[in-house]
Amino acid sequence: MTTVSNGEKKSLLVFSAHSGDFVWRAGGAIATAAEQGHDAKIICLSFGERGESQGLWNNPGMDLDTVKKVRRQEAEQAAEALGAEITFLDLGDYPLAVDLEAFDRIVDLIREANPDVLMTHVANDPYNRDHNLAHETLLRARMVAQAQGHKNGYPPIGAPQVLMFEPHQSEMCGFVPNLLLDITPVFERKRAAMEAMSAQRHLIEYYTDLALRRGVQAVRNGGSKSILQAEAHQRIFPIVATAVL
Amino acid sequence: MTTVSNGEKKSLLVFSAHSGDFVWRAGGAIATAAEQGHDAKIICLSFGERGESQGLWNNPGMDLDTVKKVRRQEAEQAAEALGAEITFLDLGDYPLAVDLEAFDRIVDLIREANPDVLMTHVANDPYNRDHNLAHETLLRARMVAQAQGHKNGYPPIGAPQVLMFEPHQSEMCGFVPNLLLDITPVFERKRAAMEAMSAQRHLIEYYTDLALRRGVQAVRNGGSKSILQAEAHQRIFPIVATAVL
Amino acid sequence: MTTVSNGEKKSLLVFSAHSGDFVWRAGGAIATAAEQGHDAKIICLSFGERGESQGLWNNPGMDLDTVKKVRRQEAEQAAEALGAEITFLDLGDYPLAVDLEAFDRIVDLIREANPDVLMTHVANDPYNRDHNLAHETLLRARMVAQAQGHKNGYPPIGAPQVLMFEPHQSEMCGFVPNLLLDITPVFERKRAAMEAMSAQRHLIEYYTDLALRRGVQAVRNGGSKSILQAEAHQRIFPIVATAVL
Amino acid sequence: MTTVSNGEKKSLLVFSAHSGDFVWRAGGAIATAAEQGHDAKIICLSFGERGESQGLWNNPGMDLDTVKKVRRQEAEQAAEALGAEITFLDLGDYPLAVDLEAFDRIVDLIREANPDVLMTHVANDPYNRDHNLAHETLLRARMVAQAQGHKNGYPPIGAPQVLMFEPHQSEMCGFVPNLLLDITPVFERKRAAMEAMSAQRHLIEYYTDLALRRGVQAVRNGGSKSILQAEAHQRIFPIVATAVL
Amino acid sequence: MTTVSNGEKKSLLVFSAHSGDFVWRAGGAIATAAEQGHDAKIICLSFGERGESQGLWNNPGMDLDTVKKVRRQEAEQAAEALGAEITFLDLGDYPLAVDLEAFDRIVDLIREANPDVLMTHVANDPYNRDHNLAHETLLRARMVAQAQGHKNGYPPIGAPQVLMFEPHQSEMCGFVPNLLLDITPVFERKRAAMEAMSAQRHLIEYYTDLALRRGVQAVRNGGSKSILQAEAHQRIFPIVATAVL
Amino acid sequence: MTTVSNGEKKSLLVFSAHSGDFVWRAGGAIATAAEQGHDAKIICLSFGERGESQGLWNNPGMDLDTVKKVRRQEAEQAAEALGAEITFLDLGDYPLAVDLEAFDRIVDLIREANPDVLMTHVANDPYNRDHNLAHETLLRARMVAQAQGHKNGYPPIGAPQVLMFEPHQSEMCGFVPNLLLDITPVFERKRAAMEAMSAQRHLIEYYTDLALRRGVQAVRNGGSKSILQAEAHQRIFPIVATAVL
User: Model-level pTM?
Assistant: First the structure.
């Protein structure tokens, strides 16, 4: 892991299949990056307008455009609470679809952000295939963004680490956390972001409890006893380090 | 990973099934720890006297005691080159055997060292079951050393990370490196240690080349372009961190 | 597993990549559902007209339309023998292709059937990628059918279990059965269905023997000694139960 | 899964490496079996006297015999709250050891109980090798108890299912739940059992929250919306069933 | 795979946990080696006297010595039918136990046979832990037999391939065949060997059918259409070859 | 593995995602096939013009057509050095795309070549999704080429084995070699081919060293001590054999 205290500004870029995913699953990581002075950017591939907006569809007379508008507002508010920029690609959900034009734009966004770390969903979530597509899209776009011969105003990127954030049912998705992130210092930011997601209020308590459970595990894995809340993530690529202690 | 530059002295403890393993597979990590001012200790469970001393047995009239004596001298010389302390338990090799008394002593050594990081072989090497036993012994002894009710002058240890170093045929052992350690600054120390192992000279070139190959991969995974040599390791437990960038 | 004896009618929906798959691999499960008074429906994504109709193509002058017509007749006859309804989507085989329109229709069919259990192929069959596509299509369509914001006359479905039926070479496909279904009471129905498949007669003996072998294993795993024939299936999702005994 | 409502009394037998494990990890399953009129028996291989009794060792002047005595009393009280019989083998912990005599007694206990379901720890917990040994011992003893030629007053057992209960850090142990057990009706019993474990009070809130999280997942996997608490378990062997719906 | 037609006599050595395993699971491989002029040797670690002799124990008044005597006679007869030598170590079954003395003898037997190929059970059979111990013992003894410093009249062995033969429920044991052996030419020998096993007659039909099913798969995987019967095996180590076609 | 010495001409067909992959990863296998008198054919899905031509793009004023032209020339020269025919499909890289027309052509090429062995990339390379697509395309096209009802002048193919060649970071791709191919006799051909790839000169030393390392492993796995260089490959399907020795 890179040290962050030397004034070098870095960049985190998060791919969220639906506009709520980044809040529940990566809100702590995003707020941590922002709080430590780095750039944090979020790309929402869709608004989760069809599949993850139950709270809105329960209102009589609701229509797709309104759902998307509300979801956008909520996600913007959540991103602001976390200290991050947010971009919406509006590619549709349930199922999400990424055509060539959208893919090309995603490559551009990656090159523009030139991230040190990318973050997205797991590779294989049997409950939610939109998550898989977000994962695959990120890996493919990362590869293209590295290609020296790819057209573009921005130069090729290096080899950013990719983190997968925690899915709803981790064991069913082959998720094995190798990074427990202490989010105690930013948990109020994450809570504020969660509270912005009115269409999914039922999840707030669930993810608050999950953060405590991951916090207990962080302490059990040698973390500081002061850790209360944590987020679980899984790095895909090996890290490169200059020390083992 | 813990930063090491603040004067806080930490401790690395390495379990080597045979007296050469720590040199070929973890020499860079050990030298790095020592070079950065930390304690580095090695426990050799055996001398590899029967199974890994071909060079010596080729001498006419060789006997077991002589092999062990030479292997001890070479390993001491190698440890010195790396900057580490070394302890020999002389438990026999091919097959290695760890009885209750030996196990008890190992627990004591772990408590005494109070390591921040433990290091040993992979869990399942089809070529070499002594390696597996070293792995299992370390995990069991770590567990006992954590027990509050275990007799002992030393207090229970915390939850040190465990690293597995690279086996000879990584893919056959399910080894997937998640830590590529830059050993460029200490590679001369590792080479000196390797050259002390006269019974296995044929391995020097092999492990020198391997270090270069892992170095190339470290650069490809986002490491500094100045990296020439690296060692591959695999952390078992999640790391606890306070930043993602 | 749900008890079925209380008069509550349930629904099984089977996705068959080619028009024979449901017979060989799931005929017992389908006949069991029908025999117990439930709805059993089959969706054939293709007729297997190009890849699984050797017996027909060996006739001189055979053409694609004739093969499809015969395969349809045989599959209808097999479905009738099993007691199930059957729908043909005629999406082509070798390779199977599912475009947006077909996908949309599949979602409609799932909502209409409102199944308690879905059944299809494994995720990764190296011999037959049409099987994989059927699997992926089912998981994606299940997800969309659950979305509250998805247009449709029918309401969103719940969370039906998904079963994978046995592939030809189970070990090569990562298939690990966790459900051995006693098909002794309906085996004559399955045999009648198999005998309807004239284009693949060579498989009848093979699958009759397989049923006996799985029957032996069912007894060995604690099943009633009266079990003669069984079918192996693998549930994807955890089951929810109110008892452990 | 077997139906339980017809007056046929069945038997559950639980292997607990330490005297608290059965409470935290399987208390709901045990209470469910008891509540439904079945026999529930627990075998504690050790008292967890050295490794899982922090709360007691923190008392000045504590000694091993006292810890064991208190742990026994607490476990008896917990078993009573769950409605189960309990047997203590006192084989030692951290590390647990099972010698030939103990193994033989365990086989006798299995034959005597003639269980329909056995329950124990996962196969590979990197944090706690006592758990692994409990798992291995159960599988070996089950095999011996099935042998027709094994001496014994009791006849050979059949082929009882084996369930693994949830470890502390599920993903690190390769635990993939395939059974979410509704423990809502017996949760007060489980809470009472947990409250008996004074040496590990810090775990009560943790496992209470975990039960709620598994309850949410049970509903998400198609369980009744009335489920509040659940326990996650993983069956090792395929189940044999007579229906798919 | 080595060509065998050039008059070079090779050696196959099979470890059988119980005295019937080599017949059912490896009889075709053994007979093939013998038929082609090679040495085939079998080591029975036990007679399977307690766990795999149901047919004998059903006789009133049966005792352990008689069972072992009959099992020995049957296994000798089976080995003769296959054209192999057989050695009995009588280490006990259910559970099998390999003490130091037995292990030492096994190493001697391996060195004496100097095998080109070793063959045994899978690593992890949840139904039968004796099989696992046979596997582990073979890998450990192979390692010791390779050690230059190991005492012994015979010189160290090279690096023989290890094959695992098919367990009863392949998918439950992680068995993935990578070698389908045509046993058509020797099937009558295998049948004769199977018929010698009076205590397990119920298995003859089962394994005869299995051979046909594996034969069908061999043809499907590119084998000659003349193949009727096959045996499935899994090589552990990579093969070294001089051609890819 | 098939014997090759009897004058029967066989056919190897290699799918290379980019025009350099076949050289670095399979050059030895291709040269071996050619040297032994067989047909060796290479299909380059793209020129690797955007992603694997750094050496060319570093020249000022470089454009895509020139890169492709140079890459074609180099690949033709490399193929010639190896003794193979080469076909370029020019489907684009970073990302590679295979449309229906291209897929159809690929099926034709497979039928025309009627290969005994197919060779391509691994299934899951997190660094390079073009490799995955090449793998998937090969498995799908193989399946279609086997279909009796598929239009075409050429008859259906049989069941050719599929080999995966070694990816850059084997452990990250789940690559487990089960075939170490002795390429000592053809290494000069492979070197000549590598030297033709001017755009990737930095890889020559890397792959020369890798060949030596794999050579050492081949000897360690029982290969002839005369082996200097080897290539690692992984067969997907079981091999069918008539001997175990």
Answer: 0.96
Instruction: Output the CA torsion A219→A225→A229→A234 (10° steps).
Output: -30
**Which of C142, C161, C244 is most worth mutating to test chain D (most D CB atoms within 10 A of its CB)?**
C244
C-beta of residue F180 within 8 angstroms of C-beta of residue F213: no
Q: Contact C163/C118 with Cβ under 8 angstroms?
A: yes
Model confidence at C7, pLDDT cuts 50, 70, 90, reads low
Q: Please give, rounded to a whole number of angstroms, the shortest distance from the CA of E35 to a CA of chain D.
A: 36
Residues 16-35 of F with CB under 8 A from E: 29, 32-33
Residue F135, CA distances (Å) to B171, F52, F142 in order: 20, 18, 11
Say if the Cβ atoms of D53 and B148 lie within 8 Å. Answer: yes
What pLDDT is attached to residue B4?
47
β-pair partners for D15: D43
Rounded to 5°, the CA angle B56-B61-B64 comes to 60
pLDDT band at A2 (very low <50, low <70, confident <90, very high): very low
Q: Nearest to residue B147, comparing CAs of D208, D18, D203?
A: D18
Give residue A11's identity as a one-letter amino acid code. Answer: S
Confidence bin at A3 (pLDDT 50/70/90): very low
Neighbours of chain C (3+ CB pairs under 8 A): A, D, E, F
Could you tell me if B139 and D131 are in contact, meaning their C-beta atoms sit under 8 angstroms apart?
no
3-class state of residue A211 by DSSP: helix
Closest chain D residue by Cα to residue C36: D243
Q: How far apart are CA A121 and CA A167, in angstroms?
A: 7
The DSSP element (H or E) to which B101 belongs, if any, is helix B100-113
Coil, strand or helix: which one is C23?
helix
F94 touches chain C (CB under 8 A): no
When pLDDT is cut at 50, 70 and 90, the band that residue B85 belongs to is: very high
Quick check: F150 and C64 CB within 8 A?
no
- Is C180's Cβ below 8 Å from some Cβ in D? yes
What per-residue confidence (pLDDT) applies to B55?
86
Distance CA A80, CA A72 (A): 12
Backbone angles phi, psi at D235, to 5 degrees: -75, 140
Which 3 state secondary structure label does DSSP give D45? coil
Is it the case that chain F and chain D have 3 or more CB pairs lying under 8 Å apart? no
The helix (H) or strand (E) run that includes residue E241 is strand E239-241
- Taking each helix axis from N to C end, the angle separating C64-82 and C21-35, rounded to the nearest 10 degrees, works out to 30
For the segment D59-117, what is each residue's pLDDT rounded down to a tens digit?
Answer: 999 999 999 999 999 999 999 999 999 999 999 999 999 999 999 999 999 999 999 99
- Is A10 touching C (CB cutoff 8 A)? no
Could you give the CA distance from residue D83 to residue D32 in angstroms, rounded to a whole number?
9
**Is the pLDDT at D7 greater than 80, yes or no?**
no
Judge whether E149 and B67 are in contact, CB under 8 Å.
yes
Cβ burial F110-136 (10 Å sphere, 16+ → b, else e): bbbbbbbbbbbbbbbbbbbbbbbbbbb
CA distance linking residue A19 with residue A6, whole number of Å: 33
Residue F149 forms contact with C (CB below 8 Å): yes
pLDDT of residue B150: 87
Q: What is the pLDDT of residue D55?
A: 86
Walk across the sheet containing E230-235 and list its strands: E85-88, E39-44, E11-16, E117-120, E161-165, E230-235, E179-182, F239-241
**Identity of residue F43:** I
pLDDT digits (tens, 9 = 90+) for A49-69: 999 998 899 899 999 999 999
Chains E and D are in contact, defined as 3 or more C-beta pairs closer than 8 angstroms: yes
pLDDT class of D5 with cuts at 50, 70, 90: low
* E67-101 pLDDT tens trace: 999 999 999 999 999 999 999 999 999 999 999 99
